[in-house]
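Thread title: Can someone regenerate the structure for this chain?

I was given the following input by a collaborator and told the matching structure tokens would be attached. They weren't. Posting the sequence so someone can regenerate them.
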Amino acid sequence: MSWRRGQAYGQDLRDRVLAAAGDPIRVVAARFGVSPSYVSKARSRFRKTGERTPGPQHNQVSPRLAPLYDALRARVAERADATIAELRAWVVREHGVAASHPVMWKTLAQLGLTLKKTAARGRAGPRRHRRGARRVGGADGRTRRHQAGVSR
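Best answer:
Regenerated them for you:
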């Protein structure tokens, strides 16, 4: 059976479960491949309301920072070089809402806002070609090892 979490079972299955009202809950559950809890709840809803359809699902949680979207947009436009930690501190200080680092990160991503580094901070990039240390040598350019007569 192709059922996903958070989704109601199909109406045909619900009708078959309710049609087997005379059988024990565990027998009906085993016959249709559902949990005994589902059979019990479907029967209970039918007895109380007379409805054979599933009830409304209340599994949508609104984002914690949803009321602050406009304020966040304005703050990032004002200070584009602010860090996530600075934005979190600002939200707590100004609005009294605590948000974790991942929540703030995901909220900014949903709003399409990115935090940019300023030129003063520099950017991450490839290492520059650096000169190696100079060899210590005499006037003729030979190293001390060669001067001391040490062979390779």
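Helices lie at 11-19, 25-32, 36-49, 69-78, 84-95, 101-111, 144-147.
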